[in-house]
Predict the 3D structure of the following.
Amino acid sequence: MSEPLRGVIVSHAGVAQALIAAVDSITGVGDAFVAVSNDGCDRDALFRTLAAAVGERPTVLFVDLPGGSCLTSAVAFARGRPDLAVVTGVNLAMLLDFVFHRDLAPAVAAERAAAAGNRAIRTPA
Amino acid sequence: MSIKLVRVDDRLIHGQVVVGWGQRLHVGFIVLVDDAVRDSPSEQELYRMGVPPDIELIFASVPEAVAQLGAWEADARPSIVLAGSIATLAALTENCHRVTRINLGGIHAGPGRSERLRFVFLSDAEAEQLKRLAARGVEVTAQDVPTARPVPLAEFT
C-alpha cells in the first residue's frame, strides 16, 4: 500500500496549528497534517516553507482564505505537480473528512474534503 | 483624490490589502504596479484570485502607471496603488509628482536588510532612498493595517 496522503494547512497567523490540534483532539490522528503560517513571509519565503513542508509526497494543500498570499503561494507551488491539489476555505469538517480518506488521489481527496467542508456550513434556526 | 493609498507591499495582493484596507476605504479598483507581473498572464491570474469580483484589478508597468496616474486620480471610485518594492515606487515617483504620500505596508527580510519595524526590513540603500523621497516632500509612513498607528519615517530610519 502506498503512503497515505498528507495535508499541509497554509494559513494566516496560528490558524493552521490550531486546526491541527483540534483534529488531533477529535480523531487521535496527529500526523496527517503539517502547519505552515505566512507570518513574516513574503511570497518567496512562503514558497520555500511550502517546499520544505510538502517535499516530494502527494499532498493536499488546505488554504484558509480564497485569496491572498497563502493562496497565491500555494497555487504557484502546485502548478505542474499533479500529485498536489489545493482547497481553499479550510474548516475543521473538511480536515476530519480528509483524515479518513487519505488513500485517495490528491485531486479526489481535495474534492471530497471541499464537499464535506461545504456541507458543514449551515445556519441552524 | 480617488487614490486613497499608495502602498509598498512585497506580498502585493493579499488579505491586508484587499480586506483590511479595501473594506475600510471602500475601494473600487486596485492598481498593481509591477513590470514583471504586467508581462506575466499566469502571475496576473494568481493575483486575480485574491480580489473579489466587485473590485477591478489593473496591472500596470511603471511607465503605464506614470501615464495613467492622472486618470486614476480622476476616477470617482476610491483606489489603491500597490507596488512590490521601494525601487518600483521610487521609479514611479521620480517621473511623476502626483504621489505625495507613501504607505510602507510590508517589506520582509532579505539580503542586506535589517529589521526596522516588525513588518518593515530595509537595507541602508533603501532607507536612503526613502529619505530622499521624504526630502522631496513625500510623506512616508509605515502602517500595516488601518487600525495601526502610522509610523513616520524618521522613527525607523
Notes: The domain at 6-104 of chain A is CATH 3.40.50.510 (Rossmann fold). The interface with chain B takes residues 12, 40-43, 45, 65-69, 71-72, 75-76, 79 of chain A (CB under 8 Å).
